[in-house]
């Protein structure tokens, strides 16, 4: 079985392109070196391939269920594999040393996490949701909350979730109905129902720390009335809190991650005479959604990584298969007695493999680039922090949505490469596709991120976000223009970048927000293609004149993306500049 990720590609991206070792010159990362980064990555690859990958199909076939005693039952192999991850201390990767963490750069920690996401997406979710949960509390919680809830997560004893959606309110969080009422002791009592809660209940650790969005009295309608609460499964004294598992959702993929319908405060456990689940306010009332964006934005980049990792695993599996599966003869070979050739020799199979390679390696580059921006934002001077933060704001909807769309397409192509075998459960690529199909949905569907990108990110601060993105891509183009071997790519990207800027202006000239945003998803997809083309030009600059199959593979994938994919932005921009009203003017009765 092929490894789920390419060690060589990670090494290239981290060290030859992003030069992450230079981060060790910053005080936060001064205790690290190339050797410590390599040690973490090697340990991650070892545990992921040895304790996660072998149980990927097992967790898919034997998904969690609720036992007779009301507890969630997971296969023992999954529990023991996660325990090995926890014992290795990898959950502590990016946390400050004062919290018991390793203080790894985010970019290295994300590379470590990608091994687990590629090896077993469902198993990886339990711990990585916990990390995002703890990061939020560490940022906005009180010292007591950090000691009570964050440290046990970093130690691997507690797990964490995010509880946003409700049965009637998915992306539209303004419509949540969960309530939080202040109690006399300074805590709150939460009542309500949360839906689609990943890792919402299990027996993997001592406790589950739920971060719950709820509305408090006097907050007013909409999102401005939302507050954020810590609602643990067990209270600090060990008493069971009034958090009840109503049932598990049965998913198309990612089956080994429990996905729960949870009731808060329905009286199932009643730890207190007052009705409701005991809850602890994070920060100030009515600012909950702004706090939750800390975890949501982290999760959005994480979803992009998850989509990338699954696409990468499928690509490598289909590549391995194509090299050993013999079938057919070259189209110019007329001798029927000639031996069949490996299918990797056929032009159309190479097309499908090049497409996958261009999608997954481009997406991995984007995810790691955004992760390095997080490190620069945390450790730079004021100017560097502001620049990195603004660029990250613009790139986040793309880093989530583009891999979720195109690495899913990579999984579809992987099935196609394997043919009939790819459509069977005896081979892994069909599961990769099912697992990956969730990623275009959760943490904001494409439509949500299209609205975010076009409606907020590129126009905020009088267009400062788009200006910075264009300047940053322009800097790469300028460097490439100095290299005759890259001049063709530089010219193509400059043309498309200029069109992006002009299209943005044209779209907002409509004078009607509904018209301007009607085709925001097309804008997201086209802008994403330009960003991935930028990532490929960056990689070609890092390749330089290096020789060998690995570097030639980078050149081939970049050429594919520029010849086959980047031109697809043309029709999208034409649609956008025409201010097409097809979707607006369609009567629901016609559908």
UniProtKB/TrEMBL annotation:
Q: Name one GO molecular function term.
A: flavin adenine dinucleotide binding
* Needed co-factor(s): FAD
* Domain Acyl-CoA dehydrogenase/oxidase N-terminal residues, every copy: 75-156
* Chain ranges of the Acyl-CoA oxidase/dehydrogenase middle domain: 162-264
Keyword Oxidoreductase found? yes
Q: InterPro entries, alphabetically?
A: Acyl-CoA_dh-like_C_dom, Acyl-CoA_Oxase/DH_mid-dom, Acyl-CoA_Oxase/DH_mid-dom_sf, AcylCo_DH-like_C, AcylCo_DH/oxidase_C, AcylCoA_DH/ox_N, AcylCoA_DH/ox_N_sf, AcylCoA_DH/oxidase_NM_dom_sf
**The Acetyl-CoA dehydrogenase-like C-terminal domain covers which part of the protein?**
470-586
The record places domain Acyl-CoA dehydrogenase/oxidase C-terminal at 287-450
Keyword line: FAD, Flavoprotein, Oxidoreductase
Q: Which family does it belong to?
A: Belongs to the acyl-CoA dehydrogenase family.
Q: What is this protein called?
A: Acyl-CoA dehydrogenase
Specify the taxonomic lineage: Bacteria, Bacillati, Actinomycetota, Actinomycetes, Mycobacteriales
């Amino acid at each position: 079985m092929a490894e789920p990720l390419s060690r060589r590609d990670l090494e290239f991206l981290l060290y030859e392109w992003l030069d992450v070792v230079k981060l060790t010159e910053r005080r936060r990362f001064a205790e690290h070196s190339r050797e410590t980064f390599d040690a973490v990555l090697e340990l991650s690859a070892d545990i992921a391939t040895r304790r996660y990958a072998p149980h990927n199909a097992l967790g898919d076939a034997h998904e969690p269920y609720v036992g007779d005693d009301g507890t969630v039952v997971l296969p023992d192999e999954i529990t023991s594999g996660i325990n090995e991850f926890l014992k290795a201390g990898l959950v502590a990767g990016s946390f400050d040393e004062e919290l018991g963490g390793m203080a790894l750069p985010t970019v290295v920690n994300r590379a470590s996490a990608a091994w687990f996401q590629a090896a077993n997406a469902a198993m990886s979710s339990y711990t990585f949701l916990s990390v995002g949960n703890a990061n939020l509390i560490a940022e906005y919680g009180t010292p007591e909350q950090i000691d009570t809830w964050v440290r046990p997560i970093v130690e691997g004893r507690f797990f964490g979730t995010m509880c946003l959606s409700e049965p009637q309110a998915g992306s539209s969080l303004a419509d949540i109905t969960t309530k939080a009422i202040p109690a006399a002791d300074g805590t709150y009592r939460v009542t309500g129902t949360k839906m689609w809660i990943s890792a919402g209940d299990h027996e993997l650790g001592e406790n589950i720390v739920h971060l719950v969005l709820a509305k408090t009295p006097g907050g007013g309608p909409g999102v401005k009335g939302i507050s954020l609460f810590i609602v643990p499964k067990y209270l600090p004294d060990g008493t069971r809190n009034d958090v009840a598992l109503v049932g598990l959702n049965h998913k198309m993929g990612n089956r080994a991650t429990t996905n729960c319908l949870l009731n808060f405060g329905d009286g199932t456990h009643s730890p207190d005479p007052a009705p409701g689940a005991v809850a602890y306010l994070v920060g100030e009332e009515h600012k909950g959604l702004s706090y939750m964006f800390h975890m949501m934005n982290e999760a959005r980049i994480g979803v992009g990584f998850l989509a990338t990792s699954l696409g990468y695993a499928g690509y490598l599996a289909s590549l391995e298969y194509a090299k050993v599966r013999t079938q057919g003869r070259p189209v110019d070979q007329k001798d029927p007695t000639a031996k069949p050739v490996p299918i990797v020799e056929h032009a159309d199979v190479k097309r499908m493999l090049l497409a996958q390679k261009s999608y997954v390696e481009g997406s991995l580059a984007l995810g790691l680039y955004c992760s390095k921006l997080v490190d620069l934002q945390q450790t730079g001077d004021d100017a560097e922090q502001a620049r990195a933060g603004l660029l990250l704001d613009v790139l986040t909807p793309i880093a989530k949505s583009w891999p979720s769309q195109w690495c899913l397409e990579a999984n579809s192509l992987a099935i196609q490469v394997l043919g009939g075998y790819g459509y069977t459960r005896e081979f892994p690529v069909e599961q990769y596709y099912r697992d990956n199909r969730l990623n275009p949905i959760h943490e904001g569907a494409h439509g949500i991120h299209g609205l975010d990108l076009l409606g907020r990110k590129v126009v905020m601060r009088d267009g400062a976000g788009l200006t910075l993105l264009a300047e940053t891509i322009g800097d790469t183009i300028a460097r490439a223009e100095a290299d005759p071997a890259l001049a063709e790519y530089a010219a193509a990207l400059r043309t498309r970048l200029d069109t992006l800027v002009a299209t943005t202006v044209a779209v907002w000239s409509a004078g009607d927000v509904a018209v301007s945003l009607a085709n925001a998803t097309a804008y997201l997809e086209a802008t994403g293609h330009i960003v991935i083309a930028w990532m490929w030009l960056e990689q070609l600059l890092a390749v330089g004149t290096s020789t060998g199959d690995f570097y030639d593979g980078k050149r081939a994938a970049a050429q594919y993306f520029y010849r086959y994919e980047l031109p697809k932005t043309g029709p999208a921009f034409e649609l956008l500049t025409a201010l097409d009203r097809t979707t607006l003017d369609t009567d629901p009765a016609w559908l």
